[in-house]
Design goal:
Elements lengths: L6 H5 L4 H12 L3 H14 L4 H27 L2 H7 L1 H13 L1 H10 L4 H10 L4 H33 L3 H32 L1
Helix pairs in contact: 2-3, 2-4, 3-4, 3-9, 3-10, 4-8, 4-9, 7-8, 7-9
Length: 196
């Protein structure tokens, strides 16, 4: 398979609705890659921008609800309660309750925080409807922002870069995949040099 992030989505079908379904499914695998691929597909005219953005929102928001539900389901498992302990759960519930809205918003914008924050919300039994409202608003803002930036850059790339746009898309895809690992290594080196 080539480094082109749109190739997997296009392989599933070339109609806008088949691509939209593929975008929704792709958000469950790699959300950021799905967002960039959807924006590039919209920029090339393979799918209308509003269809691509709507598909992203549906997939990402469904994933957010799934994380809350996963946490809520774990709450009914005795082994999970024993592993964490009632005292820790009560302490975590109080801490998260005091910062509920800001924690949910922060989790959307800070890589790596969404899974623990959203599942903890479900596990600790924090209110569902505020979760839904904040998660939907944060998802809409973040997804629209990233999609728009990539879409407008993609339109420029399609118009001005010709065949090189696929090389650039492949490099961007590789950077997204390698970014968290590189950031982790950089943070560890910085910590080690600070300890010396």
């Amino acid at each position: 398979m080539s480094g082109d992030p749109t190739a997997a989505l296009l392989a599933l079908g070339s109609t806008p609705w088949a691509i939209a379904i593929a975008i929704v499914l792709a958000t469950f695998v790699l959300e950021d890659v799905a967002t960039i691929a959807a924006a590039f597909l919209a920029a090339t005219g393979a799918v209308p921008p509003m269809v691509a953005l709507s598909a992203l929102f549906v997939g990402i928001f469904a994933g957010d609800l799934g994380l809350y539900g996963l946490g809520a389901a774990a709450r009914t498992r005795e082994w999970a309660r024993r592993l964490i302990g009632e005292r820790r759960m009560a302490k975590g519930r109080m801490w998260l309750k005091r910062r509920y809205i800001s924690a949910l918003i922060g989790a959307r914008f800070m890589p790596g925080f969404r899974l623990p924050t959203y599942t903890a919300s479900g596990f600790l039994g924090l209110p569902f409807w505020p979760f839904v409202g904040v998660a939907a608003a944060a998802c809409l803002i973040w997804t629209s922002l990233v999609f728009s930036l990539v879409y407008f850059f993609g339109v420029m790339a399609v118009e001005h870069l010709g065949i090189w746009r696929w090389v650039l898309a492949g490099l961007l895809f590789a950077l997204i995949l390698a970014g968290p690992t590189l950031a982790d290594r950089f943070a560890r080196r910085a910590a080690e040099s600070g300890d010396a």
